């Protein structure tokens, strides 16, 4: 049986895509560049091109890699392939918005758990994301801190070592994420309890996130952070 939501001490979170709306951030910036150059950019097409370009053998850490990605996808979108625009796309990460339910949900969840951020973004970008989210985290692990990216098990093991230093274990963590590829599949393999936030439940495809080789049925499944926070509230009242 799936553990009760009241049994966990920690909630660990994927940040970009689960709490921060990076798809809207990316496409809004590309559409602005398009408008300035007389080009209409289709958001879903842009995300598909981004996904293909991002997950190649020559990637850099995120979001610095957006400069390289932009130069690859710009010609296919009819945009000028100029480095300055790529740098603008990278720097747009500083202003990406939280999903409308993220801040309140995190504030509510913080009353019951210690919150841990686990992001493939670099530390400089995470600092902007954390501020946008109200700085709710007890601890944070970025690509700079871990030297690797999810779904590498080594990323997760560093988090396990951290909670162990506080007298807990991975059994005390509920891992919350929208990415089947980066988070849900590997967390299951590592024996964690997980919660899938299906942000794209009303849309087709995987958007800006790579498609997993196989779908992993999560322990908990919600379409928003608000639903998770409500489920926790109810669990604690019963």
TrEMBL record:
Q: Does the keyword Hydrolase apply?
A: yes
| Name of the protein | Putative hydrolase of the HAD superfamily
Species: Rhizobium wenxiniae
Keyword match Hydrolase: yes
- By its UniProt entry, which Pfam families does this protein fall under? Hydrolase
Taxonomic superkingdom:
Bacteria
Which GO terms of the molecular function aspect are on file? Answer: hydrolase activity
Task: Name the InterPro entries for this protein.
Answer: HAD-like_sf (IPR036412), HAD-SF_hydro_IA (IPR006439), HAD_sf (IPR023214), S-2-haloacid_dehalogenase (IPR051540)
**Which keywords has UniProt assigned to this entry?**
Hydrolase
Question: What is the residue range of the signal peptide feature?
Answer: none
